[in-house]
Each structure stands twice: as C-alpha cells, then as structure tokens.
Amino acid sequence: MIKPLLYTYLAMVVVVLIMDFRHLKQAAPINRWLSYGIIGMSTGIWFYVTTLKKTVFLSVWMSHIIQRLLPLP
After folding, report:
1. Does position 71 have pLDDT exceeding 80, yes or no?
2. How far, CA to CA in Å, does 59 sit from each of 20, 29, 32, 62, 73?
3. Considering the entire predicted model, what is its pTM?
4. For residue 73, what is the DSSP state?
5. What is the pLDDT of residue 54?
6. Share of the chain above pLDDT 90, in %
7. Which pairs from 43-47 meet CB under 8 Å and 24+ separation?
8. Sign of CA dihedral 51, 52, 54, 55
9. Going by C-beta distance under 8 Å and a sequence separation of 6 or more, which residues neighbour residue 24?
10. What is the per-residue pLDDT for 25?
11. Gap between the Cα atoms of 46 and 38, Å rounded
C-alpha cells in the first residue's frame, strides 16, 4: 500500500527537481553547489529511510549520544 505512494511522491520530486535545475543554472556558483549538495543529501536520506528493513533515525541516534554527554537528574 505504501510503496505506490512513495513512488508517486518520488515522481513528483523528480519533476520539481528538473524544474529547479533550470533555475539553478542561473544562480551564483556557490549557491548552485550548495543547492546540489542539499538535494543530493536529502535524496540519499530519503532512499535510506525508504529502502532499509530496519531504519535508524538520525534524531534517535543523536539523542543517545546527547544523553551520554549531558548530566541528567
């Protein structure tokens, strides 16, 4: 049930990215590379979250590290 919705979402994201890439070509080089980096990282995170059987969420991982570092009552 959820897989067709994810693929529909992915198709819509691809269409938006194609439209954004046309506008990014006119941006300054640093803004263009920052945008490409953010788009690439977010796509990687999206694939990581949707394809693995057991997902490790970054916020949970960070909370475990922070709990070790912060003094709690």
Report:
1. no
2. 29, 32, 28, 5, 21
3. 0.49
4. -
5. 67
6. 0
7. 46/10
8. negative
9. 31, 32, 35, 36
10. 77
11. 12
